[in-house]
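Internal tracking record. Fields below are filled automatically when a chain is submitted to the structure queue. Please do not edit lines marked as system-generated. If the sequence contains nonstandard residues, flag them in the REMARKS field before resubmitting.
Queue: standard
Priority: normal
Entity type: single polypeptide chain
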Amino acid sequence: MNKVYFAMGLHFHQPVGNFEEILERAYQNCYKPFLDVFSKYPDLKMAFHISGNLLDYFEEKYPEFLDKVKALVDKGQVEIIGGGFYEPIFQAIPKIDRIGQIEMLTRFSENRFGVRPIGLWVPERVWSPEIIPELNMCGMKYAILDDAHLIKAGVGEDDVYGYFLTGEEDAKIAIFPSDKALRYTMPFRPPRETMDYFKSIMAKKQDPLFTYGDDAEKFGEWPYTHAWVYKKGWLNSFFKDLTRNIRWIETIKFSDCLSLFKPLKDVRIPEASYEEMMEWANGSWMNYLERYPESNQMHKRMWHTSQRIKDLVCSDKVAMKRGRLAEAKRELFKAQTNCSYWHGVFGGIYLYHLRKAVYEHLINADKISDEVEHAQEDGWSDIKEMDFYNSGRQTVIMQDKDFFICVDPADGGAIRELDYKPESWNLVNTLARREESYHKKILDRINKTHSLDFEIHEVIKIMDKGIKNGIYYDKNIRACLIEHFIDKDLSKNDFANCNYTDKGDFQEGTYRAGVEDRKAVLTRSGRVNDRPVHITKEISIIAGQGIEIDYTLKNQGDSGMNTCLGIEFNITMPNGETDRYSEKGNAFILKDSKDELCVELRFSEGPKKIWHFPVKTVSQSERAYDLSYQCSCIFPVWDIKLASGEETSLNMKISIQK
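SYSTEM-GENERATED OUTPUT FOLLOWS
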């Protein structure tokens, strides 16, 4: 008798750093009710992948949820799918961390559920053939991708009802293609449409195997789904239909498919992801690192931290500290959660609190590494030039027990990262305003010029009223120590809205960099109003006090110069947006919104004026178009009058106080 085999897999995930109230909402609206309903249908089988952040949350807040999953595993009703514990993009992390992340989730599954997973959830279905050897090494026999991956590999659209093998002779893995038709109908269309779809394929295929792998959040946490799935009974009706038709629909675990069916064929699957991701990322997830320099900063900081831990594990300094380095590695793995590094229909990199979590865990890992590496050293400090960005160009990295500083000579000699270790806080956790494809939709909506086929999900999105004031794009990254030469009559609003022309070429120019007397020394000869000007800036860490910057500006032209120099600082306080600014003498002070910390910028010579304003980006989430705070821009401005050959100096200090 011809029948349908149906393998279902659900992916439960929330990013590290997400607000606890969101996790609680997802638990009450989605995770708990789903398990409650599914438990009533013992004849159905399914696979669960639960990412590490949720496992940590459930273990602490709702261990009974995991107990219930364990009971379903023991009954043979649920299969546990493995993967990277904290949901990294495998292609984007070092090989040693791919293995470490997978083994961490495998150990957890063995200890908590009593089973060793042989299947892998691929985060965001970002696939690359290069990861297959590590998957094999970790005992992974299969992975779930989209049917689009197979179609891209040359498989016909009507030939995806089964599983495939991919890889080289000595390293292969089975691939189950998640069915697009199912992903777009479950749970959004009546259950009968899924049954009709099964029948239509069964009429053409003998014993077709349908595979489905998708986000559990679709079943109650996505906007408007909770009422449909539970209150109106979609899930209950769907499970009833599957049970009612058990004579010709058999739900099956993925692992059982490997023994019951033979692979349809061997294929070579190129680098790919789901269709929307391929569009957003222009073909490769790794393009996000180029599109968003802030993502690249987090990524290279993560890579730097991973290498440091690896070096310490292999060094003779580890001695009795292996347990501490295991803690450092867990902090590193948390920082590898993919959600903070990209942007699509969800907030991603635009969400400050997710980026904050990345830096918080990287800095935590660094502090443990400091403890291991410098255990017997008081007052240690380190400064070196290195290819931090893996770009073939040198960057200056400075640190001591309190600070980690990344200075990028190729991007205006700016401070791209300034970590204050005691609070695990990066002061330069910023994001520039840049154009996104959906901004045109927003402007069309504001101007009421959209066409009749304007998508319905665009209409129902809430839009922040402040967006109507305009969408602006930055000229450069939002970092610290960016020099601008501006017109004397430039207004604050025009500067804030990037409606101006810089009179110099220093803001994005490349500086020469070196290390002298424990200082980062950056020099550049450029032009201001077509006049040759030379700038030197020296950056140093003053132990126990803060950061000191010494500027020297020299007029190398044949005639005098009369201009305005502004130095741009972009700073984000630990709790995000603050409106607590003050000036005191030659100092400018930012206070945290909770009044716990303050940053003081102190200048040797008082500026003519200090502009300050919040930098807010326009981004989309699944529920709204948001105007999101990213940083506070502080812009002190000095009048500069120099005769030919004359130079002037300026000293400034950055200190952090409780």
